[in-house]
Amino acid sequence: MKIRFYLRKSTKKYSINFEYRNSNGSIRLRTSTGYMIQNSKEWDSRKERLKIPSSVFGAADINTKLSEAMYKFNKLILAIDETDISEGIVQRIMLDAFGKTSVADKEKAKVESYKSNLISYYTWFLDYYSVHNSPYTKKKLGQGTLKTYKTGLSRLQEYIEDRKLKKFSFNDCNREFYNDYVLYLSSLNYSKNYLGTIIQKLKTILGYAYEEGIHNNNEFKKGYFSKMTEEIDHVYLTVEELKRIQELDLKDPILDGVRDIFLISSYTGLRVSDMLGLLKKPYQVIFEEDGVKYFQLRQMKTSNAVIIPLNSIVNSIIEKREGKLPDYIYSGLINEHIKSICKKAKITDNHSLTRTVGNKVEEYNLPKYKFVSSHTARRSFCTNAFKAGMPIQDIMAISGHKSERVFLNYVKVQKVENAKRIAKHEFFR
Description:
The chain has 429 residues and is an alpha+beta fold. It is 47% helix and 15% strand. The chain has helices at residues 59-79, 87-98, 103-112, 118-129, 143-162, 175-187, 192-211, 239-246, 253-268, 272-280, 312-320, 331-344, 375-387, 392-399, 404-410, 415-423, and strands at 2-10, 13-21, 28-37, 43-44, 49-50, 286-289, 292-298, 305-309, 350-357, 360-367. A three-stranded antiparallel β-sheet has the order 1-2-3, with helices on one face.
């Protein structure tokens, strides 16, 4: 990744411009800051700032604005995946930093142009709320959430193209559309839960636009316009299985890093996004009190500030790495390698899973490691902590679950195991 300010000659003047390049060079975005100077000698190309003292009016203030823009962009880089950075986001940061134009006025005008166009509003929504706090959630769209919304937008665009619809407005979202859209998605052999997520994101978009007065079609609020769900018997790893993973002799540094990240998440309950967020930061969010080490952070999805004690296994990983956390690894690599790591750990007992794909119920009976993903770590923490007798409210304080009902649906405890746990209560003694 490279971000810089530079001069660009235009006629008789020089424009102070901003450039962003991602790490592999596939994305290159440029925009003007709006500042012009007459003489290129006033510019320090090494510091990427105006020379001080300078004959340029307000040079010190301009330099301050450049630093503010750089700070905002660096902060953004830590919050979202670099592949999600768009020209619109860059432009908006420039506007926020330099105040050449009212951002609020520009956004209001942009939204006005989207009143009758659902797709355009959907696009604007992703662009805007990736850098601005939602008035309802009081936070920006997280990286994972943003990607889910983008998927929802793609599916809707594909549907419109498939049905050869010349236009598609908010008012077209009615019962007829809902039934046909569900039919279309089902024909593509998507799972019921995937389909439900697509519908839920669309309902959210329609809800935001409705509350903003962009449309008055309330069909999305009716009972038929529902998100369908299906309980899936996702796997978790037992403490014994996690121990086997820990004891593997992994020579490959990538596999070793994936293993350590997975184990830390399995013993802290951190979402992958939060775990990777820690690894991207230039400082450690670890403190020690009374001989116990803790993680202290703010969760991306819930914005909850949490303090998580570190057990001996997490401490051993940090000690192995000379007091540091593992190096940052792209989330796709974690999912790519964790299955092979689990296979090496002989987590190969058969696991059965049933789910609805399209209009068919499909059954899978495969080695357990094939069902493991990065999210399995968090599910393993919740389930193992619950089985160990940790109070539900304490686990929920870390996991971020809003209700006990949702939490108990999340943990993977067999009915017999749950009954055994309940039997230990003094009421049954």
